[in-house]
Amino acid sequence: MIRIIAVEALQDASYCVAEAASAAAALEQLRGGGHFDAAIIDVGLPDRPGDLLAEEIRVTWPHLSIVIASGRGDAELAKRFSSDAHVLILAKPYSNQAVCDALGMLGIGPAPSG
Q1: Is the N-terminal amide bond of 62 cis, ω within 30° of 0?
Q2: pTM for this entry
Q3: Structural domains present in the chain
């Protein structure tokens, strides 16, 4: 449910969004060769923890911006990813604006109109 709300909020803010319900689906999309500026990952994915997905993404896509949404142990995650300027931890619950702000902090803006 949170994923659907976040997707709608990002689309309303003029971001182009691709949605994946699992780590495997997200990796499949990334490997598909499309252009992605960022990945927003929930820690509670059904097939593996989102922080492990972020680490896996980092190996192949070292400059892809990543927002990790977590309702647990934010300090631990922040410490773990502190040396990576392309990773931001977003504490749950978060507002629609907070998701857009997190992307902005990573230098990711909405798609140009027209």
Answers
A1: no
A2: 0.91
A3: 2-105 (3.40.50.2300)
